[in-house]
């Protein structure tokens, strides 16, 4: 088909929802540095923490202290809005309200399955209700459905049936490849195939996730036999995650021009990695226990609609091959890339105890990804594999081109050979127990409000035993 | 702990359920060649097909023509017994009945989560109700709950959260390795690490599954660039699947002595593979689209209890390293292996149209696996990864040591270089459209009734377009 949701005029009826002059009656949403202006309206699953633990925000995050059901919510400024209560207040059309109510306890999957058009309606209706000029009576009712972000706890935004991790960060693939093959960093298939592998779904958690340092088999190059013990080269990976909206039937591929209609929105994703375990286990079938102990995503899904103003042309470097026709579409070329500023921040236990803020380790731009999520999705379904609402894709590590833009410690320390020195004098080659890693993501563009992704934090606990 | 479910006396209270002298009032269960004598009592999810299509058994299999809910059932001779109706008839204790009722529409996951002890109770109670000496009144009531196997349709036995495919067939790993590395067929990690990778859960289907020949990117060695088209080297893989019962919390490994308590039962598993796609895509992160288009399992889960008489010592060949301590337990050594006779049968479209039976291509023994499922499970959870009830493990291709015992066409045809000739004169290097592959599995031992796995059939449809 020639018309696609991805074409320049796709979101025209939503254009005013990006107008930076429009403000919300929720004052905090109008602060210039908020992640959640009225132009964002992310979607997540949350509930209010129990009053007993509500005072201890930081410690209680992610520990499941609340007692009510998890409900679909949006974030606006420093508040969360309960969307089922908003539906009760008459904010939504009947189809949107029905889809949102179906999400209670289950996750956003029913909304994901309902498609991009309904999601656009949801955005429009929420926008109208939260605008400064919304009816005073509605404002009063919705004020009752606001919960400070500091008082909520999240669960995963949806039931994730399958998780696929791609490898679309060419700077990462090149830097890591160089460590193993200085003369041929990129394998011959890299510029043709959106390389990916199936990941572990059960161990995906939301921001606030803590996990024990994994145990595993490793073998030193000079050792006669491997041994089993705590991972010594524990790392993070800075990725963007995409959640699938509408799926496809088995045997029914999704053409590149239709791919964007199947993408619901984006999150930040930390693909925690045990480098020493990976090095010993990964031949010939790929990473397994080196990755499956934990994966952390940010709880607020930034919708495709919110990201529309930050799209840009998808271009290949001079001399690189054009994608094969099944991965090459006009809309993908015109606006397939999305510019998202990405950063990694690290807070050690000593920093936390001293009240020091996390240190920024690097920054990169998701617009540099070698493949778009539309291409990854089309490739994924090209063999007839059925995708389902809530499936998660990881982008692969998003490093920048420069040496100080590595999206993992493996890159920043050149395979552990050159330690990083933190502002407080501590050094790191790989992660230590007690370290917290925060991924940061936000979009900016001339004449647009900043759209942020919110927190994606995970913390390393000591190994068992 | 020193006592384990795996020790020799574990199933002593179930010993009489293996007594070959005991028969059922369901006459067909007493035929010597049935897969489902009273000593088996497998568990699955099924429903009666609608009467309109009930006459056309073969064509309707797996097409979802029934209208009622899928319910937990067992197979006995040529009949299926609806276990919720059996619960209504008073067959089960209250805890077992409650777990079985919770499975309706959902799958066996609640029963899986309830643990090995309750599953043993379920077996005992079913056995008592189906024995020849069961009360006549009970026989009369249960007769009403029997449905001929030819009139039921299956869905997956459980909701499969994550699917992990291992590589525990050493003869397969050696044969395939030889095709690529004649001088070093097995990689250095093979005898130390139960190699595995995450598989695609969404495309797993039950026996009767049909799927389109996958499209994919391939590159001929002499081609300048890859191309996209139908897979030319489509293959099957003969595997055994294991379903996880009770899971573990994240960060809480499962010791080798406790591993058997977490295994619910076994199925047959066909890991369909696109060899040409795999060859081009798999470096460096492993198989992806070459496997994700379809995986077929047999619908009846053969429980750990039914398989107890076929256990045998797990021994390593002279000169092979002992497993590292975390994978080495006394019970695993004593009775960790399970002897299951495995076969692959092929029926081409021409054979089907001529009314010819499938041709047997090979046979092997699962007792030859290099790792036990207990070891795979302990290894999987050793990094803290949380396993969940209903998770599926594949064993990897189970080939025998001889060249004619290859568990895939890749092996039987030496990489496609030497075609197989079928009884009707047709030749095959890889699968053609219309081919059906049937996996067969059964256990036999001196003085024991034969325990069969039932059908695991899948059929290749032409590629899209």
TrEMBL record, chains A, B:
The keyword Metal-binding is annotated on this UniProt entry: yes
Start and end residues of each Fumarylacetoacetase N-terminal domain: 69-157
Gene3D superfamilies in alphabetical order: Fumarylacetoacetase, N-terminal domain, Fumarylacetoacetase-like, C-terminal domain
Top-level taxon of origin: Bacteria
Region entry Disordered, spans: 46-71
Keywords: Calcium, Hydrolase, Magnesium, Metal-binding, Phenylalanine catabolism, Tyrosine catabolism
GO molecular function: fumarylacetoacetase activity
Known EC number: 3.7.1.2
Ranges where the Fumarylacetoacetase-like C-terminal domain occurs: 165-460
Pfam families: FAA_hydrolase, FAA_hydrolase_N
Pathway(s) per entry: Amino-acid degradation; L-phenylalanine degradation; acetoacetate and fumarate from L-phenylalanine: step 6/6
Compositional bias of kind Low complexity: 53-62
InterPro entries hit by this protein: Fumarylacetoacetase, Fumarylacetoacetase-like_C, Fumarylacetoacetase_C_sf, Fumarylacetoacetase_N, Fumarylacetoacetase_N_sf
Cofactor(s) required for function per UniProt: Mg(2+); Ca(2+)
Annotated protein name in UniProt: fumarylacetoacetase
Organism for this UniProt entry: Roseateles amylovorans
């Amino acid at each position: 088909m020639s018309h696609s949701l991805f074409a320049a005029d796709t979101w025209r009826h939503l254009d005013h929802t990006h107008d930076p002059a429009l403000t919300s009656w929720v004052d905090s949403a109008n602060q210039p540095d908020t992640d959640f202006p009225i132009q964002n309206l992310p979607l997540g699953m949350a509930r209010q923490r129990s009053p007993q633990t509500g005072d201890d925000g930081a410690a209680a995050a992610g520990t499941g202290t609340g007692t009510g059901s998890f409900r679909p919510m949006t974030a606006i400024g420093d508040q969360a809005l309960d969307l089922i209560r908003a539906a009760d207040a008459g904010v939504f059309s009947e189809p949107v309200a029905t889809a949102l109510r179906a999400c209670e306890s289950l996750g956003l999957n029913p909304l994901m399955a309902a498609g991009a058009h309904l999601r656009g309606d949801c955005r429009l209706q929420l926008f109208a209700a939260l605008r400064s000029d919304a009816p005073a009576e509605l404002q009063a009712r919705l004020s009752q459905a606001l919960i400070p972000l500091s008082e909520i706890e999240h669960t995963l935004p949806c039931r994730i049936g399958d998780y696929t991790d791609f490898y679309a960060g060419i700077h990462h693939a090149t830097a890591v490849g160089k460590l193993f093959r200085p003369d041929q960093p990129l394998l011959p298939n890299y510029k043709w195939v959106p390389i990916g592998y199936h990941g572990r779904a059960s161990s995906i958690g939301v921001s606030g996730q803590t996990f024990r340092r994994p145990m595993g088999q490793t073998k030193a190059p000079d050792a006669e036999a491997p041994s089993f013990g705590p991972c010594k080269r524990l790392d993070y990976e800075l990725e963007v995650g995409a959640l699938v909206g509408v799926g496809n039937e088995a045997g029914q591929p999704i053409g590149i021009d239709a791919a964007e209609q199947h993408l619901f929105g984006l999150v930040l994703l930390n693909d925690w990695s045990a480098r020493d375990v990976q090095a010993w286990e990964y031949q010939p079938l790929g990473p397994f226990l080196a990755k499956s102990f934990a994966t952390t995503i940010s709880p607020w899904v930034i919708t495709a609609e919110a990201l529309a103003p930050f799209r840009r042309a998808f271009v290949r470097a001079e001399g690189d091959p054009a994608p094969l026709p099944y991965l090459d579409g006009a809309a993908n070329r015109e606006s397939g890339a999305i510019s998202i500023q990405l950063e990694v921040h690290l807070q050690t236990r000593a920093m936390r105890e001293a009240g020091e803020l996390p240190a920024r380790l690097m920054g990169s731009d998701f617009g540099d990804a070698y493949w778009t999520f539309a291409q990854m999705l089309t490739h994924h379904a090209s063999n007839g594999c059925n995708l389902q609402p809530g499936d998660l894709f990881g982008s692969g590590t998003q490093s920048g081109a420069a040496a100080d833009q590595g999206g993992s410690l493996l890159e920043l320390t050149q395979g552990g050979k050159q330690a990083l020195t933190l502002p407080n004098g501590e050094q790191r080659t790989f992660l230590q127990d007690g370290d917290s890693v925060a991924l940061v993501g936000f979009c900016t563009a001339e004449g647009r409000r900043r759209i942020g992704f919110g927190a994606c934090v995970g913390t390393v606990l000591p190994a068992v035993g």
